[in-house]
Design brief:
The complex is a heterooctamer, with 2 copies of chain A (about 90 residues), 2 copies of chain B (about 260 residues), 2 copies of chain C (about 375 residues) and 2 copies of chain D (about 180 residues). Helices cover about 20% and strands about 15% of the residues of chain A. Chain A has about 90 residues and is of the alpha+beta class. Chain A has one domain: 2-Layer Sandwich (Alpha-Beta Plaits). The two termini of chain A are about 20 Å apart. Chain B has 9 helices and 8 strands. In chain B, strands 2-1-3-4-6-5-8-7 form an 8-stranded mixed beta sheet, sandwiched between helices. Chain B has about 260 residues and is α/β, with parallel strands linked by helices. With about 375 residues, chain C is α/β, with parallel strands linked by helices. Chain C folds into 2 domains: about 180 residues, Rossmann fold (3-Layer(aba) Sandwich), CATH 3.40.50; about 100 residues, 3-Layer(aba) Sandwich (Rossmann fold), CATH 3.40.50. In chain C, helix 1 packs across helix 2. The radius of gyration of chain C is 20 Å and the shape is globular. With about 180 residues, chain D is α/β, with parallel strands linked by helices. Chain D has a single domain, classed as Pyruvate-ferredoxin oxidoreductase, PFOR, domain III (Pyruvate-ferredoxin Oxidoreductase, domain 3, 3-Layer(aba) Sandwich), CATH 3.40.920.10. A 6-stranded mixed beta sheet of chain D has the order 2-3-1-4-5-6, with helices on both faces. Chain D is globular and about 40 Å long. The model of chain D has no long low-confidence stretch (mean pLDDT about 95). The chains are: A alpha+beta (about 90), B alpha/beta (about 260), C alpha/beta (about 375), D alpha/beta (about 180). Chains in contact: A-B, A-H, B-C, B-E, B-F, B-H, C-D, C-E, C-F, C-H, D-F, D-G, E-F, E-H, F-G. Strand 9 of chain C pairs antiparallel with strand 2 of chain D. The structure holds thiamine diphosphate (TPP) (2 copies), iron/sulfur cluster (SF4) (6 copies) and magnesium ion (MG) (2 copies).
Chain lengths: ~90, ~260, ~375, ~180, ~375, ~260, ~90, ~180
């Protein structure tokens, strides 16, 4: 699973940066063509969902997705052969 | 479940300002509804007028975006005429408690089987930031330029006194708890009232020293106190500061309900 | 088999509604309409319908609109003060094209006025009382029989045009008892449903879109904001608004002649009474008493939209006399449509026009 | 022929019911036409109540009573408010146990309340006695029709009492002398 | 000394009210009128007045009427949906003869419609929107200057006639900013007080009774029921009701010509525009651009009661062109009063009439 | 003091039915007002529509008989515009709690300095006996011909939850207590709410097996229980039967009030 | 002082008969011309107010007056020389 | 002479204030006439905001802008929505730091946001820079007038900053080459 921000929906409120326990979201720096500064992802593979959602068959953390007022955060299926590089940090 | 299943994606992004808490409450509601296992065609979302009341327009189920303050009265007609429909009301503090206050207390009194979710941003968002019946005393708004001199409603207290079966309060920060509360409300026969305090950076935060979206979320986080804890403190004779937000389940009972298929 | 009863107008109204399949009544008591609610409270539960007394008239009409979206035939009944309170939501019903029936048993206004006395002072209010431009249909019964018949017909018109239809009666007709022939069954039109593949606010040739009943999987969004054919809010586009509002008006106004409903007596007359509701009874008495082919009568059962073509049915008419229990509200409308002389005979205070006075007026004119 | 009948008395005497019963008799059992009207509202509380019925072989056009042909008056105040202006050619039935005054027109005195109380044990059926007398004296509806209409209109269990009262009315009207 | 400002129409309206001595505002926010409330909230406390945001528009107008009985000049401001909700209490103000000012910054209706777009769709509603027969006064500003001037004047008219006076503006005039000359002081009429020995509802020659301010020992009973000259309820007497309602209507209608207020350009013209509010600005542009004595303009500042005598001021007029931001509401009224040709130019959706289109229409007619 | 000093004797007898409790509440109110020593010209009585709301028309002071349900909103305008006036509102259960419910709770929230006296006959008297929001469950009325299926409001509970400073309930039987309660309310700054249960022999009693005037008065007498006693019983774990009427002072506090001359 | 019922106001509800501790009011028996059966007074001199009002300068009992919904009960001044026959019963 | 100016950008740039200041300058300090209008409503949130001002020596009659003589465009979306249809004879000032596109008409590029941030340390005064440039390039109001109007309209304590921005605008407009 791969964490993605839908740039066409995100309004740059940075609520995701506030709630992620892994600080995966970082305030962005550059406005996109719509004038929105979309957050940047810092090693999104660390996300609990990316790692474990498939395994447990349900959303594991999902805080960022729940709080994102613009329904801009989701997880995409990844191709089956894509390598899963996981580096857990505490 | 993905939110997109439940949303009219052709209408996104929605009209809410960046960082508006309403979007979060939509998420929590859709999660709760989805968890109930309800079919889309048996659910009707109803709302009045306000930023909050725009929510139903983004959801794929049948929905009725009514006049300001009247959502519960319209919803009562729907539910009484067809009790098989699950009727959920989205409303705002102004819509529910200012112009709609009467329908609110009568919905509670009748204990009609609706789930009413109030996105309480303590302000009239849609019209640009006038004071509402939940604007805290002293807070600034465009119609309280010297600070509000009126007391704010305790919406949950009012719902309980008026007779609602289920009453709970959370904030847009408490996404998991809020989702669970909505789910409990959906499952409970009778009138279920869930108050969700939400940030309105544009019209509340900006005027009240909570300029950043995160300021208001941090405020919710730091000022929320669980009902049970507050009760304990009260028993211990400790004073709970006026600006604390009591969250949690505030009433749950089983009075006879209206609009339930017999 | 039809049967005869001796019934109050208000009760007949409720019975007519029930016969038409009305299964939801939401309202708030007010003199002189209350008996309608009371009768519905007693009868609806017995036919599987719902009666609910709401907290006020605003909630009353709101609940009716809500109920209508579940597909039910739904109504409310009120009088002046309550009618005034319904104005906002009546506009909502117009904008969202919600079929519903609103009965107004008119009493003396303005304000609390004369709660127990008859009037027809809300005729222009029912046409213009909500903000913005729109059109509605209003019927006006002149007998207990018509309280039954026209109320039933109101539901058919409401469903056909997807608008609020008003039964604009008055205290006299609402409160009096008289002979009522209850037919075995009444004609029940169907509410046309939204066709597969159609957008929810995409109108057919009759300018009326099919109705997407809630709970049937249409997934429709209904809003009082200006909306496009999908039903989506679109509140800043002048063209979308213009299209929508014009269609809402046109669907009714273009049917003006085809839905016109009236009684015509002596179409060749030189002096013609135009009446609706209780004053019609005084006019009928005059025509009965003076028996003169030069005196005609146009009795409107359907008052709004006013079909001006009816006036030309009286080709010899020199004068139209319009007795009303108000200061000349429909006379105002009639004047707009004719160059012939229009004599309003306003009457305020609750008493009916005296047939002698009307006869005297006619004598003068002949 | 159009006959206008006006009833008056005080609240609780069943003045309105009386008019309704007569109208009902005409419409449902005599195949005639009738219109019944009454005075509404809190202003009518306490004071005299009034009800009227118009009976005709043809449909009733003008529905309001203008100059009643027949009066049924059951209280002094009712007489003063609604009976005193009776025209010369009218007929008035008065409950002589309660109404002191007498009109200028033909008057039929029926001690209805007294008889109701003394002979039938219930004041409340005085109105039915008056109806009986009205029918007997004027024939405005048939006796069969009024009997059926009364049975339609009175509470279950009181049918016999009311029919007795009606018959008392027939009887009393037969006895009176017209002044 | 007067001074110049650059101000929004809504703000100018509030300033005009303050200058006229308005000391009470009770209302409820609604686009596009909200700035009036907001300005009053900021300013009233500074001049010893009271601003209160009520729970809805019903309560807003109610509080205004209450305040007026204490002798205060009082106002509210709203737009379509709120205006609809006020209808019942507007009738109460009419019946009890309570002076007050109601501003309606019109937006697109019906229903929620187009909250941010201009319209003039409530012109007939302001005349007929409450139940029963009555008359009111309505003004219609066409500039920021008139938002100030006419609002101030509204208070004088309200006090003089003891009725609700409406300032029927539109979103364009309410929201635009332009030059405003703020006079040193504005003319302030007095509210005539009840004379000693007079009954509270005993009218003087002008058909208006003196006002018995609460708290001054008049001991007056004020009711929305039909009442006699003592103010006592008397709700079943046809004659009392007739007298009262006729007087309420006549006091306004008989002053129709004397209070008429308008601008007249080229009274000898053959083609005459009639306008009020924002469309006047398009018409003024046309007249400016085409410079033709055969094209005239009647710009109504006072719209209700419509003074038909103004039409006869244009003795050569063959055609009246009536551009409105509605489907022809005042054109309807004008038609009633003239046999000359009336061409409504309805416009819905929020945009103003294009001066080119109007000019083209004129060309055709000349 | 005599009542006649305060009454428009030219309008008596009033329109109330024989034995109607409203007349008694007028007596208690006039006594209380008289005891306050207020001058007639500084008092304004305000009411809505209903039998109860006809009361001001019989009193010699200035009075405003408004539209149905709106008395408190009108009174708010009077009081805010001239805080020197003493403003007393007469209302009925339908007027106050059905159509007027919103103004009621907002009056309480604002804690505006009014005294509101509700003559609660548990029915719509004026319009001939329809159910009201205080009609007890199961009671008969013309619109609840099979017994009311909705819960009744606890008006005092609602007033307290909404924020009123003073709240009390008595009945038309408890004339002395009621008089004292009204007097206390008049003297208390902020919103004072006094509920007076009254008999309506015509439209309530007659349909609910309380045919005689005295039946309802006897009912009030036998079913009233003082708040303190009820509290004691509750503490002792005893159940208070549903049909008991809790009387007494139910709230008295000193929250900031609106409409008080500073 | 003398206890009086104003017959023009009394509607015959008999609430006075219910509350007088001395049972001074008795349901009447005959309708007056307005159709109202006004209560009768049984030795009204026994009324606490009649006896003691003057003495204490205030209303002593007054229950009947307070509860009378029609403001029909009052006390009239008696001529100074009228004899005061008082018979107290408990 | 009537001059119609249209401003567009995104929320927070002070698009509306810019138009108000220009109108104010004209009316209060140049003794001209002006009408300022704007787009309202939640639909305007997020997207491009728009405001307009008409300036004339005579009273402004028709108050709406139909074919602007001058555009002040401060965002790409603003350009697309409100600037793209500019007529050939118009002049457009664009904030070249934010707007990629260029119109068919005469265009004056002002890197307002960049200058605001880099030279003045505050993005927020980009609108004042644009106003300065507008005045310098078109002379629609006088420099004295615009200065006074700016001082009237900005928060206390920011006067110097804003005047600096205005002067930057004057300056930048003087330097540009028209394409
Ligand atoms: C009858 C009526 N009055 C006023 C309005 C204007 N109005 C629209 S939304 C709103 C306030 C909404 O406040 P709230 O319910 O708190 O919603 P929010 O926008 O804060 O989510 C108002 C006053 C209206 N649409 N209709
Ligand atoms: C807007 C409006 N709706 C309805 C009515 C009719 N109405 C008059 S009084 C009343 C009920 C009064 O009930 P309550 O307040 O309990 O007074 P009561 O007569 O019982 O004392 C109603 C519904 C009205 N006058 N106005
Ligand atoms: S929470 Fe959503 S909208 Fe906000 S910055 Fe993150 S992704 Fe964007
Ligand atoms: S799901 Fe949780 S861990 Fe993963 S990105 Fe979101 S907040 Fe962070
Ligand atoms: S105004 Fe406030 S409530 Fe409305 S969308 Fe913006 S942030 Fe949300
Ligand atoms: S109907 Fe009831 S409340 Fe009204 S006056 Fe009669 S007894 Fe009193
Ligand atoms: S309480 Fe008053 S009205 Fe009732 S019977 Fe006694 S005196 Fe008469
Ligand atoms: S005052 Fe007391 S003692 Fe005297 S009559 Fe009245 S109730 Fe009886
Ligand atoms: Mg809000
Ligand atoms: Mg009541």
């Amino acid at each position: 699973m791969r964490l993605v921000i839908d740039e066409s929906r995100c309004k740059g409120c940075n609520l995701c940066t506030l709630v992620c326990p892994y600080r995966i979201f970082r305030p962005g720096t550059k406005a996109n063509p719509r004038g929105v500064i979309v957050p940047e992802l810092d090693r999104p593979e660390r996300c609990a969902n990316c790692r474990l959602q498939r395994l447990y068959g349900r959303t594991i953390c999902g805080m960022c997705q729940m709080i994102c007022p613009d329904q801009a955060i989701s997880w995409e299926e990844e191709g089956p052969c894509e390598p899963m590089k996981v580096a857990i940090e505490y | 479940m993905t939110f997109d299943e439940w949303l009219r994606v052709d209408r996104l992004p929605h009209i809410y300002c960046a960082g508006c808490g309403n979007g979060t409450v939509i998420n929590c509601t859709l999660s709760a509804v989805d968890q109930m296992g309800w079919k889309k065609e048996e659910i009707v979302f109803v709302s009045g007028i306000g930023c909050s009341s725009r929510a139903p327009g983004y959801i794929v189920t049948d929905s009725l975006h009514t006049t300001h303050g009247r959502a519960i009265a319209f919803a009562t007609g729907i539910k009484m005429a067809n009790p098989d429909l699950k009727v959920v009301v989205f409303t705002g503090d102004g819509d529910l408690a200012a112009i709609g206050g009467n329908h609110f207390i009568h919905g509670c009194r009748r204990n009609i089987d609706l789930t009413v979710i109030c996105m309480n941003n303590m302000i009239y968002g849609m019209t640009g930031g006038q004071g509402s019946p939940t604007t805290p005393r002293g807070a600034l708004s465009t119609t309280t330029p010297y600070g509000s001199s009126e007391a704010a409603f305790d919406l949950c207290g009012l719902a309980a006194a008026a007779g609602a079966n289920y009453v709970a309060r959370y904030t847009s920060y408490h996404v998991k708890e809020l989702t669970l509360a909505i789910r409990t409300g959906l499952g409970n026969p009778g009138f279920s009232f869930i108050e969700a305090l939400v940030q309105c950076p544009t019209n509340y935060g900006r005027r009240n020293k909570l300029r950043q979206v995160s300021d208001q979320i941090e405020y919710f986080k730091s000022h929320a106190i669980l009902a049970q804890k507050a009760e304990r403190m009260r028993e211990e004779g400790k004073k709970i500061p006026d600006d604390m937000i009591i969250i949690g389940e505030l009433a749950r009972r089983n009075r006879p309900a209206l609009g339930v298929r017999k | 088999m039809s049967r005869i009863d001796f019934m109050q107008g208000n009760t007949a109204c409720a019975e007519g509604a029930l016969a038409a399949g009305c299964r939801f009544f939401g309202g708030y008591p007010i003199t002189p309409s209350t008996e309608i609610a009371e009768h519905m409270a007693a009868k609806l539960p017995k036919v599987g319908g719902v009666f609910i007394q709401m907290e006020d008239e605003i909630a009353g009409i709101a609940s009716v609109i809500g109920a209508s979206w579940t597909g039910a035939r739904a109504m409310t009944a009120t009088s002046g003060p309550g009618f005034s309170l319904m104005m906002e939501n009546i506009g909502f019903a117009v904008m969202t094209e919600t079929p519903c029936v609103v009965v107004n048993i008119q009493r003396g206004g303005p304000s609390t006025g004369q709660p127990t006395m008859a009037a027809q002072g809300d005729m222009l209010q029912c046409r213009f009382g909500s903000h913005g431009d729109y059109s509605i249909i209003a019927l006006s019964p002149a007998s207990v029989q018509e309280m039954y018949d026209l109320t039933a017909e109101a539901f058919n018109l409401a469903d056909r045009f997807r608008i609020p239809v008003f039964v604009m009666a008055d205290e006299i007709i609402g409160h009096m008892r008289e002979r009522l022939m209850i037919p075995d069954s009444v004609h029940r039109g169907e509410r046309k449903l939204l066709g597969k593949g159609n957008l929810p606010y995409q109108a057919d040739d009759d300018l009326v879109p099919g109705f997407p009943v809630f709970g049937k999987g249409y997934g429709v969004h209904v809003t009082g904001l200006t909306h496009d054919e999908r039903g989506y809010p679109c509140a800043t586009s002048p063209s979308v608004h213009e299209c929508l509002v014009k269609r809402l008006v046109d669907k009714v106004e273009s049917a003006r002649d085809s839905i016109a409903s009236c009684d015509i007596v002596n179409p060749d007359a030189r002096v013609v009474f135009i009446s609706y509701g209780a004053p019609s009874r005084a006019v009928e008495q005059v025509l009965h008493d003076i028996h003169n082919d030069n005196v005609g009568h146009l009795r409107l059962k359907l008052v709004w939209p006013f079909a001006e073509s009816l006036l030309s049915r009286f080709s010899n008419a020199e004068t139209f006399i319009v007795p009303e229990l108000n200061m000349g509200q429909m006379a105002r409308e009639i004047k707009r449509h004719t160059n012939r002389r229009v004599i309003p005979v306003p009457k305020l205070g609750g008493a009916l026009h005296d047939p002698f006075d009307l006869a005297a007026l006619v004598e003068e004119l002949l | 022929m159009r006959t206008e009948i006006r009833f008056s008395g005080f609240g609780g005497q069943g003045i309105i019911l009386a008019a309704v019963i007569v109208g009902r008799a005409a419409v449902m059992y005599d195949a005639k036409y009738a219109v019944q009207t009454q005075v509404y509202g809190p202003e009518a509380r306490g004071g005299a109540s009034m009800s009227a019925v118009i009976i005709d072989d043809e449909p009733v056009l003008f529905p309001k009573v203008t100059s009643p042909d027949v009066y049924v008056i059951m209280s002094q105040e009712g007489f003063e408010k609604y009976g005193v202006s009776a025209g010369e050619r009218a007929v008035m039935l008065v409950d002589s146990s309660l109404v002191q005054s007498r009109p200028g027109c033909r008057c039929i005195e029926i001690p209805a309340t007294k008889v109701a109380r003394e002979a039938l044990g219930r004041d409340i059926v005085a109105n039915i006695i008056m109806i009986g007398a009205l029918v007997a004296a004027t024939g405005v509806v048939s006796r069969e029709a009024i009997e059926k209409a009364i049975l339609d209109s009175v509470p279950k269990g009181t049918e016999e009492l009311n029919l007795k009262a009606m018959r008392k009315g027939f009887e009393l009207a037969g006895q009176v002398k017209c002044e």
